[in-house]
Write a structure and sequence with these properties.
It contains 20 helices and 21 strands. By secondary structure, the chain is α/β, with parallel strands linked by helices. Helix 4 crosses helix 8 and helix 18 crosses helix 20. It is globular.
Amino acid sequence: MPFQHRTPRSLLALLPAALLATASMAGMASLAGAAELSPADAERHAQASYREYFELLSLPNDAISPEDIRKNVEWLEQAFRKRGFTTQQLPNDGKPMLYAEYPGSDPARKTVLFYMHLDGQPVVPAQWAQKSPWTPVLKRKAANGAWEEIDSAPLFSGPLDPEWRVFGRASADDKGPIMMMLAAIDALKAGGGQPAVNVKVILDSEEEKGSPSISKVMQAHRDLLRTDAIVIHDGPMHATNRPTLVFGNRGAAEARLTVYGAKVPLHSGHYGNYAPNPAQRLANLLASMKSDQGRVTVPGYYAHVKIAEADRKIMAAVPDDEAALKRRLGIAQTDKVGANYQEAMQYPSLNVRGMAAASVGDKVANIVPDKAVAEMDLRTTPDSNAAWLGQQIQKHIEHQGYHLVKGEPTDEERARYDKIASFSYQSEGGDAAGSQINSPVGQWAYKALTATFGSQPEPVRIRMMGGTVPTAEIVRVLPVPFAIIPLVNADNNQHAANENLRMGNYVSGVRTVYGLMTQPF
């Protein structure tokens, strides 16, 4: 889905105010009975949900185990039903997804489908600074900057410190947002209100495995899931913790490059300076693909990227502190792909994520390796998919003089060709997707966030984030506008050990979801 020309930012800034000023009486009537949620009330309902949150985090949720996924689905089904939702487990080869719908659907109202996922990344318990990744703990930052575990009792009753964090697998990605929605529903029901939109929810059970079945499951239940817009609660908020709207995500592809040398590893004394070294050749080949400034030099790699001047202005307005980011990352200079961090995310990437040739350290030997391997990941964009990028890399490899084979080269190929390699690529975990910033869902979400948190400073609007979620697969089945609305702190250690969620984000997330559900569309 290619990006289209957008309204200039100066006009976009006027849209929310103008639309709020001209809201119809019918729309206002649908909001009646749903009082504004104050920060204090949001904190109270968030706190009331924390015991459930800890209980949910105690359930292992790696999708490699269908039994664990079923336990999570059953727990969540009861949690949604307790709040009045009708639910349905959507079959998925033993790892069901969960559908939930809030009662009182009205054909006169727009329908919003909220997407989140209930599975989590695998864990290596020894890497976690706590008893178990599945035993959530409360921590605060000590004077020395380290996180120290504290008694969790104050979390359930008593004053809350917004800087406290809950550590545990899936605390932020993505069980936290699910619990924020449940707490927001509690707040809505406590006030005797009704949503201003028809609320549908789908919880993916294999997102961390690349959502291989989301299209199939959604297609099988297309009528059930029919909607006017999609909201995806996944990914991190902007580092400032300002309300964040994202209108696209990069996709992911993987590639494997193997350069072949002699048929077997060779004694480096007898054959060094005689038999070509595939590790050296691989290094040279990879170096030919990128400049020292980090730009991909494969011909045609960026050919399809087109960024309008209006979009560049929107990206320049994102309040990234790049000096602080470089300090946090421990780098002196950034790659020169885009003019800033946001622009860098608009281009497809070519990342060497691992290399192997013979051995190092205690197992090193004086040999000329027989082969060298590089694993790469390619972050795709809506205008540059995996097939296009892979084809350009393959052409480049051949242009460097390599004969490409599938599998080990034959004796005939070894005798005929000097440079031999194999190269393969495929999509991994979803394609890129983009939605217009001034689409109906973008305008509605902007109004909801400014009504909830104010317009000074205004919500951060991001054209496309670097991470991958299965947006493209979802909108291929349900071709409607979407917005990604992250709710969790940017420094949550997503996918890594010691994943965490800041309690201030939990409370603001409750307010965000409540604001979305009570904002007329």
